[in-house]
User: Which sequence fits this backbone?
């Protein structure tokens, strides 16, 4: 398997995930080829990412109506390694790969029941001002939350 | 074919649609049974209904940030008559069936290329206050717009 | 609250649900009005219904490639009672309301964290032949499975 | 603007698109932040890509039940440049960037009404055997179809 550019050493990379969010493939998420439609992993990425941010204590801050900033997706990549089918129980792994001035690089690893990685991904989230749309530097609390990562998923 | 309760005479009912919005079935809208997933017609209903409201001159009013009311879906019904497949060009028919004090009853008819009705539906939309969530009576302009319906779709 | 036609006595009706499937509202399932988009409950209905059929022992039979019949949605109704927002933990209640010759009437009740019913629904599923598309009578095993319903959700 | 790695010269890159598929942003495709949810461009990519393959004469071949191969998505990237809102009429540009032995690199450019590029993307599609799941070299006809690209969209 040829590795995507964002994975240097697959074994090391895999070992760095400690947060996983569980998802079961819905029938409406399959397509006429009989497997998970290629657009759906991004839905899983977002859902798991938000749960991760929530456990980090960041989501409340962003969703808070008084909050002046929102997280915006700057880019997203997805590599499809192994086909996924209806009703498979998946675990969506999330980790913080790099924290920038106002952005954060998130990596994704989707594992099946057998523990095999079926899908990998990455993407950059930027904190922007709701009013101006311009990027806003993380404050210390946000950086600490991101550094700490999230505890092992409790669900 | 046994008619749904909201259709008295099928031929008369069909003949009352003059607005149709065109849609082509996306691959991501099919499922592993190889046909249009049963959750998708509601997506088509909403999209066509909004285009219809837009052409009636109502949508601009509701989406307008100064507007104090929004249209809320009170209920939705869908009857699946004929299977629909990937890439079928469909026409989503919309008509105003009944105008209430603060609500409107909308009927839906989805036709395939051959002009056959594959899916029918109905639903009630209620105008509510953004602030209180309570229903708000239509003003005269709204009633006139709904009565007039929309011109034949120009797309 | 005016009851939908398929609910005679709300308290009795509510008390008859024993199977609930848990779902958390995804961000991608909200819309620009800030709440759960009206098309999404049908996705929840299907997902929970299939989990229910699986626990009844029916899904394996239908998904089995050797199987000659598939369950097809004949109609679906949804009544929106209370707004639902991002990240709400919901429980999708499923019950068998009536078993026909080749069809089954399913009822749905979506509860929020406070135990309030936010959304109700119903729909008829018909067993059809993959080859002819015509309805196929339930065999005894299917009727028994449907009658028995599913055990209380184990998730 | 920092360019994604797959775009060398933005002006040249933009000028190479001649096929565009039109899409209007559906309300159900927005989210509670009020704009197009980040998972939706991939739905547009797939839909436009398939329409493009269809006009190239490749889609019929793949969907044909007698066909032994199917196109599988190997990876997908998306860069979000400019926010997109409800009801915006978009044009999804598709071009063949590189033809491999059994794969094809596709580029995407989503333009708004003002002709501004809001979203760019790329992804690799691989032709695989339905039976073995292994990659299958393009035949001459497929290469010619891909080389030729599609005529300017007629819709």
Assistant:
């Amino acid at each position: 398997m040829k590795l995507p550019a964002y994975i240097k050493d697959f074994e090391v990379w895999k070992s760095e995930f400690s947060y996983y969010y569980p998802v079961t493939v819905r029938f409406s998420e399959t397509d006429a080829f009989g497997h998970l439609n290629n657009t759906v992993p991004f839905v899983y990425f977002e859902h798991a990412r938000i749960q991760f941010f929530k456990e980090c204590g960041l989501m409340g801050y962003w969703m808070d109506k008084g909050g002046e900033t929102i997280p915006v997706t700057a880019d997203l990549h997805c590599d499809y390694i192994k086909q996924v089918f209806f009703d498979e129980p998946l675990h969506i792994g999330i980790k913080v790969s790099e924290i920038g001035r106002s952005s954060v690089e998130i990596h994704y690893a989707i594992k099946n029941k057998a523990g095999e990685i079926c899908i990998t991904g990455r993407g950059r989230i930027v904190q922007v001002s709701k009013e101006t749309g311009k990027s806003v530097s993380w404050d210390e609390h946000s950086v600490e939350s991101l550094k700490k990562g999230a505890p092992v998923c409790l669900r």
Confidence is low (pLDDT under 50) at residues 150-155 of chain C. The radius of gyration of chain C is 16 Å. Chain C has one domain: 10-148.
